[in-house]
Amino acid sequence: MKRAALIEKEWILNKPIEDFVLKEVRELTFNRARGLIALFKEGCETAYIARYREDVHGGLSPEKIRKAKDTYLAAVHLNSKVASSITTITGKLTGLDEKRAVTERLKGCDDMEEVSDITKEFAPGSRKTKANIARGLGLEGPALKVLNGEFVDFCSLITREMKTVRDVEENMKALVADLINKDEEVRKIALKIVKLQTNVRMTVTSKLTREVEKKIETEAVKKVRERYREVIGLTRTAYHIMSHTVSALNRGSEEGVIAWKVELNPSDVTKMHPFQKKTVHRNMQNFFQSAYFYSINTYTVPMLERGVKRFLSKSSEERSITVFGRNVEQMFSQKGVHSKYVIALDPGSIVKAAFLEPNGKVIDMDQFSFSFRAPTFDSRGIEILKNWAKQTMGKDIVVAVGNGSNTYGTQTAVSTMIQNEAFPKEIDVCFCVVPEHGASKYSCTDAAREEFGEDVDIKLISAVSIGRRLIDPMSEYVKIEPQHLGKGQYQLSINEKSLKGKLVDVVRDRVSLIGVDLNLASEALLRNICGLNSTTAAEIVKYRMQKGRFKSRAELKKVKGIGDVSFQQCSGFLTVSRPDELDQPAKKRFKTPDGVAGWSPLDTTTVHPDHYGIALKLISKLNLTVEQIVSGADISFTNLTPEEEEIIKLLRDKPDLKPPPVMMVLAVSIPLNTCFFFQKKCRALKNLRVNEVFLGTVTNTVSSFSEAYLTITDFGVFVDIGVEKDGLVHISNYRKNNEQPKTKSSNNKNAPKSNTFVNKNDPEADFKNVPSVGDQIEVIIQGIKGDRISLVPIKEPKPQSSSFASGSR
């Protein structure tokens, strides 16, 4: 993605743009916010800023920088919208005072919703409100006099349109009420109420729609009701409602199942209203009180109820996207398994299978039937798997089972083959579960057809995708459209454009900060590197095919489309290993025959080429090689400059990658239930017992609804402990102080109270202590109800008596 400077319109909003950023990213100072904005204007991407411009942001995480950039872009858009709205609206007005008033109202807007509300008042063909009708009758001047404490004789305002004092009073009441509602102080209080920053009581309620109630007995409606059973008839205070609940309400509303609203007590608004003790002319007090309460009931309360609902929905969407981003970020940080052959199985009544080399190259693809009675594969399927195992020349195999429908049955069938020693004895065979979200979607894309050809059955391509996700997760996941990754909180309920844009940013940051080898990275990976796009990525691959491997980072400048700006943004994230033909000492620089600067040992580090000069002087000063510094050699110098200290940090910077899945085999003398990523046996949910200890893996799905849930949610973490269903660790277990109160129903000291509730604004419950996707955590089973497993995390699991064989997972 080429960096392009952003062209902004003249800034006309009352607040400076820095204030918008500071409001959302409180860690910033005004000067740092200004510095970040300058980088955004230049078109710098998040990953580049995060790694190489800490002098500007002061150590912000990529997520916070993304948030700052999103806020900046939203503010720029708001400013542009306000400018165009001022031109459009004031062009329709004749009175100078009215033009000034509307202009100031627009300049004071904090978000697009406010601009939209004002614009609707003056839109062609818009419904004439009582207040606007009164304005058309020339009553705005008298109404303002009332609010300024003056007396107004309603008799003097009688006209042909308003034939009685009663007519005048009714029109004046609507207009005064409207002016009260639009008062700046009233709007400030309203904004606090809408953003749940006050003690005003608001209740969220939901019910079935009339259409659904009419069909209440049909089978289809019963299924839908079951799906939304937890939010139908909901009554909860707005302050305590969780974002995942709002997502469910919105999803049910979109499907025509649920109608939900926010209800506000007018008396609570009255207590906070700036006009509660407003002083008016003594002869106008009765009229003013009538207009005041009319304003609260007719304008303010409905406005607040809509605003709170809109705020809850927006907050829910933002939270969903944030959870989505964090989970995907963790997913991309998983190291692949490169030492084993992979048999990938896409479960179903017909099992799609692929046999892959350790590098992901396809050896064979096939499909066979599954018998649900046993459960097992048909005889043909068993023979296919046995024959594939014989082709590994003695190397071990891992069977990657997709986590879709019938995944547990498929795992059981593989487990049975392992226990029956169906595979060659000299080969170690285990299996694991791999998220299959988007695999079938990818198999239908042009990219898949280009890779596999038009004749390959697209159903089999999904199996290949599942297997490659185990071998090289990041390289495979970048091929999948974000809405199909299944890594969010009700992600299908939120704005698809926002979701995709967020994931694109997360992917670019994650791929860049992990880094890729310039000579090995696929086109799909390269186009997600900071500073590159699909065109420049294709040109890099084309250059490799024509010229052979890159000799250095500097050679990138010879690729079509890579100018100085692109090179600055991308080069630090692309590594080049030492060329085989170089036999000179690694600490020297070289020149290639065509004059391009040759390979440097710094090309294997995260030091940016712009800083090579400083780095080489530092290396000489320390009398060490790059390799010695990278490996952690003691730096005895204490008088290093901040710039030199940053170089040392970059030289030692390595991607924070989770280790690949491992098979852990426990000694038979330790009868501890274990649940590892790599398994040899399956265990049934019905055989679980309360207080049993497991080592589980934080996953990405749970099948209590028809669609995939998130891994880390606002209500908990789902953990795979090797049975049909994932267990849930409630979010209350991840407080900053790690409090773990006792439960009445169990002697387990680590179990939380069953009624523990975490407020969504509780600072003691956040992501800092929550495990990430792919992490292995030790848990105790707190309770089992139907197919729901309640888990509690423990720091030091104690062995429990069990007949379950050790080393099962």
TrEMBL record:
One of its GO terms (molecular function) is structural constituent of ribosome. Residues 735-770 are annotated as: Disordered. Residues 689-794 form the S1 motif domain. It holds the Pfam family HHH_9. GO terms for biological process: nucleobase-containing compound metabolic process; translation. This is Protein CBG23927. It comes from the Eukaryota. InterPro entries: HHH_9, NA-bd_OB-fold, Ribos_protein_bS1-like, RNaseH-like_sf, RuvA_2-like, S1_domain, Tex-like_dom_sf, Tex-like_HTH_dom_sf. Residues 340-443 form the YqgF/RNase H-like domain. Residues 743-756 have a biased composition (Low complexity).
